[in-house]
Amino acid sequence: MSIRTYVSKAFLSSRFMLWTLFWVNFLGTIYGYQWYWKQLVYTAQTMSPVYLPFVPDSPTASLFFTGVITYLLIDSYKNRSQSPKRSWFRSLIEALALITSFKYGIWAVSMIWAGVYQGDSVNWQDWMLTLSHLGMAAEAILYMRLYTYRVNAIIVAALWTLWNDYMDYTVGVFPWLPASLEDDIPIVAAFTVQLSFVSVILAWVLMKIRRLMEKRQV
Question: Membrane-spanning regions, if any (predicted)?
């Protein structure tokens, strides 16, 4: 089969693919929260439990995408002739999944290899995290034709994402960085905020492309 087959709507919406991605993202989310466990405990004990939702960035992004896949699985067991049911909550989950999965997928890879560039050694976990986070960014884009979100959802998701940046770099609950990057926090913060805007713009562009594709099919 050609690469076009593997990125087709039919293949991506197949139950095999949906169940595969559901378990990959669900188990990855659990692993991610375990990865952040020490920082979650530290934040709760030394800062405030109120800050906990803003600590685990990547696992929360994969949790959002697990929600997207859950909706698509539900659709797959319904009458395929019916259009996916739109709701404000589903739209918000989709927008959050796209924006945060792309953002933190790219962010994590950038931080890992920025640390390596400044002298950190490379181990198997770095390669595993690189591949898994690139997968996060890729899957969020690949499923663009199956989303239902509109502008209002993008706005709310953008506000959440930027507020998370504020909490990370003003309050200080950003993900723990490689030792070599600890003196580069202002640069990391600026890069993170810029990546947030890029991710929001991407969500808007993909929405426009999707709507054009929908009109051509009518």
Answer: 12-34, 54-74, 95-115, 127-144, 151-167, 187-207
